[in-house]
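Milestone 3.1: sequence recovery, worked example.
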């Protein structure tokens, strides 16, 4: 119900935009493009708000299955690389262990996608976002670690934990330029917590940021 109430006005707005484009031709093209971009950002924000609500309630985490994480990471990397090439960047998997986890596939995919797409937006032009998947032992029987490294400007040390809070933006102007809503990493943090995992970020010497997602292995 909430989803329909929020998205119905957007759907009508897009119909109105298309009609205006047909009637005005190129006269108001620039203004209509701006309106369409803002509508797309609003649609993204609504989708992420709804996802965050579902994640908080735990509804999306009730159905879990054993997932080969290498396949999930490959799918996310392939989609992100396609988008990255359009802005003169790349996404590459640099390491991939054979790891399995018990998880909600949709929930975990959203968590990984948010981190990877964030890295694509912030990495410098003509650089490569590097993804690795490793299995590591720990006292609880092992964990899978998905690391995403970009070659951007990094984040101020005092903001490394805050970037996972809803609507927090480490670089407000930069986020606006890339269409950021301040919810992607918050959704990732909630999703990892529901999987009894965690997400952290740290700066890399020489530039760039590494975000690590950790979740228990399913043996």
């Amino acid at each position: 119900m909430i989803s329909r109430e929020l998205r119905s006005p957007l759907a009508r707005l897009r119909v109105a935009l298309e009609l205006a484009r047909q009637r005005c031709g190129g006269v108001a093209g620039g203004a209509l493009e701006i309106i369409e971009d803002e509508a797309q950002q609003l649609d993204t924000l609504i989708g992420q708000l709804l996802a965050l609500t579902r994640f908080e309630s735990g509804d999306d985490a009730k159905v879990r299955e054993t997932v080969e994480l290498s396949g999930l990471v490959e799918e996310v990397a392939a989609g992100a690389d396609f988008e990255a090439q359009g802005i003169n960047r790349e996404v590459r998997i640099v390491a991939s262990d054979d790891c399995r986890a018990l998880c909600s596939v949709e929930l975990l995919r959203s968590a990984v996608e948010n981190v990877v797409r964030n890295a694509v937006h912030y990495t410098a032009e003509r650089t490569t976002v590097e993804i690795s998947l490793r299995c590591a032992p720990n006292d609880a029987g092992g964990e899978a670690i998905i690391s995403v490294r970009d070659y951007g400007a990094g984040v101020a040390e005092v903001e490394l934990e805050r970037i996972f809070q809803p609507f927090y933006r480490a670089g407000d102007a930069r986020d606006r330029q890339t269409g950021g809503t301040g919810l992607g990493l918050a959704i990732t943090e909630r999703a990892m917590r529901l999987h009894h995992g965690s997400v952290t970020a740290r700066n890399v010497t020489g530039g760039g940021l590494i975000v690590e997602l950790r979740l228990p292995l399913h043996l």
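The chain has two domains: 2-57, 64-216. The chain has six helices and seven strands.
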